[in-house]
Amino acid sequence: MNFLRGIRAWFLKPSVRWGTGVLLGVGVVGGIIFWGALHTAIEATNSLKFCTFCHEMSTPYEEYKQSIHYSNASGVRAICTDCHVPREWGPKMVTKAIALKDVWYKMTGKLATPELYEKHRADLAKVVWAKMEATDSRECRNCHSFEAMDFHAQRPESAKQMQIAAENGETCISCHKGIAHKMPDMSQGYKLMFEQLQENSAKQADKDDTLFTLTTKSFYLDKDEAKEGSKAAGKFLPGTRIDVLDRSGDVLKISLKGWQQDQVDRIIYALRGQRIFQATVGKTSTDAIKRLKTETDPDTELVWHQVELDAWVDKADLVSDEAALWGYAEEMYVASCAVCHSKPDAHHYLANQWIGVLKSMERFVSIDKEQFRFLQKYLQFNASDVKDHHE
Fold first, then answer.
1. Dist CA 364 CA 372 (whole Å)
2. Cα separations (Å) of 36 from 42, 99, 250?
3. pLDDT average per 10 residues of sequence, the chain (391 residues)
4. CA pair distance 260, 273, nearest whole angstrom
5. 348-380 b/e with 16+ CB inside 10 Å = b?
6. DSSP 3-state assignment of 58?
7. Which is nearest to 60 in space by CA: 111, 129, 94?
8. CA 95, CA 80: separation in Å to the nearest integer?
9. pTM here?
10. What is the SS3 string spanning 218-279?
């Protein structure tokens, strides 16, 4: 106990040999030296040379050298840390700490080859984009601001888009992905999800009684026609819910419930009044559709019939995992519609409005007709006039 008291007294009392002022001065000088050394070390890690000395950075560095941030008419160069490291001390230290994971990636060879870099490019980009969105593109705004822009000096279309973005409070990265590095192939994620859904479809179709069509599927009114693949009675569109009534080998007897507009006998929609396509029916097969009840839409005064159709389908590309199904659609939406601009929330439009909105953007996205139909149904089911009712 006496020993501990002695240690405490030595630590707290001024030195007999050195004055308190001297000790304080030494402490201040030592602190300054320590702070200066820390600041120098941190600034050294902010240099372009430091950021690019690893061979893993050769690919993004060569891409950056071809960008306007590296070479431009004004001669102002933004280096890696200008875009990726905050200026504020606290956020900067957090970023530096998180960046230590790169040491682990270096040790494990995660990005050791150009092929591995390409494999992970999309995931790496998503992390950076998410960070920039979360901070309202903070690092971009260190150099760029709407207030400082001379819109008259910009190209007319650019000026128009910039002013719209300013009015809507959009963030820089929403429209400027790929400005310094090559855009990743954003289709990798949803294509892999589609493959996984297909792999699981046969097992789910064998045991579950509520299924969804992953692709456009032909249906038949007769079991034997379904087995033989004869001329179809119609088609179910992707994302259509069907209920299993019976099974016979590789074909299923199913029931589809939906709505038809009066005198439009060949199309079945998911809901009354919303044109969410479920099925198209051949001219000679409309008699197989049973009407359950009739209602008039109070908003449009159009007459609608609730209907039911029993048919046979093969069990390929039928899934029961609804969460995975719409997760695939969400991934496709992000990959296709969040690259050039902020993607609108699905709740922003009515179900019928989404048809026209997507049609106007069709030529700008690289998805096929099948994927386009699926994406449209996903957005319609999440539209402002459908989502709550559909759930």
1. 12
2. 10, 22, 74
3. 63 57 70 75 85 87 91 91 90 88 87 89 88 92 90 89 86 86 84 93 92 96 88 95 94 96 95 94 94 93 96 95 94 80 79 91 84 94 77 46
4. 9
5. ebebeebbeebeeeeeebebeeebbbbbbbbbb
6. helix
7. 111
8. 13
9. 0.71
10. EEECCHHHHHHCCCCCEEECCCCEEEEEEEECCEEEEEEEEEEECCCCCEEECCCCCCCEEE
Q: What are phi and psi of 370, to 5 degrees?
A: -65, -45
Residue 116 tokens read as 């591995």
Q: What's the one-letter identity of residue 380?
A: Q
Query: How distant, in Å, are the alpha carbons of 135, 298, 351 from that of 295?
Result: 50, 9, 19
CA separation (Å) from 170 to 13, 162, 177, 266?
59, 9, 13, 43
CA–CA distances in Å: residue 371 to residues 198, 255, 322: 14, 24, 17
Ordered alpha helix ranges (H), the chain: 2-12, 20-45, 48-51, 58-65, 80-84, 89-98, 101-108, 114-134, 156-168, 172-175, 187-207, 223-228, 322-337, 351-361, 369-381, 387-390
Residue 391 is predicted with a pLDDT of 46
Q: How far is CA 168 from CA 136, 146, 161, 165, 171, in A?
A: 13, 12, 11, 5, 9
